[in-house]
Task: structure prediction
Amino acid sequence: MKTIKHFSFAIVLALTTILSSCSSSDGDGGGGGFDGPATGSFVKAKAAGSNFLAEGSLTTGALNSGNLVLQGTTMTGKSVQIQLYAIDGTLETGVYNANATNNNDTHVASLTYIDVNTSTFTVTAYNSLNCENATGTIEVTYAGADKIEGTFSFVGKEVKEDESCNGGTKTVTNGSFRLEL
Result:
């Protein structure tokens, strides 16, 4: 059990380190419907009532064949992951469901809030896709060759080590993001 927790934490750290070497270009900070830093990649939200902001090298991601993966991590062990997979290979502006009942869309989306206890290295993950009664929405407000921007919100259910969803919930609101390409 401890091995899984340590392994999960190591994966989060490795992903952050590997993807932070991705290049970015200066954008104009434009796009509507979100609030965040004027330039650079970031993930911002109100998570469980507390402000969350990851920017610069603490925000990593990639866009490939219409598939967006973005993660923002703080130095206090909190992380927000945004995943949006385009079945038809194109990512366009629009609103995408990130729910367990999402089975009719041309896109599959998932939102995750991860809380790592930095003293014990225990990991608690709350996801919008894997559990019933979890909800989530991603709105892509700008999709260009230079950057992807948008907003998100979700109620994530705790996913236990045995993959059951009988834990608590976390509400993430006022989310916004930018991935500079």
Q: What stands out?
A: The chain has one domain: 2-180. Residues 2-180 form one domain.
